[in-house]
Amino acid sequence: MKNTMTALTLALAVALASAQAPKTAPAPAKPSEHVQKDVTRHRAMAAAHEAAAKCLEAGRGEDECVKQLQAACKGLGIGKYCGMRHEH
Description:
This protein is mainly alpha-helical. The protein has helices spanning 2-20, 33-57, 62-73.
């Protein structure tokens, strides 16, 4: 359980750090529709992973939290872990 929480916390920290990193190239004035859809999917997956981390922090079982993650990510990511898999 500790490894799972550590991995989720690390993944969240990396995601937040990269989201706050300064951009080296100027962004296009208006992203294409495809890019906008990708942004929306990434934000939805991030929110699902954040909810899974909070579920684990709350002391709920790993099985319950994984089921919650799978339901929130249905149709968003690849595989049953919402496009993100790490060792347990």
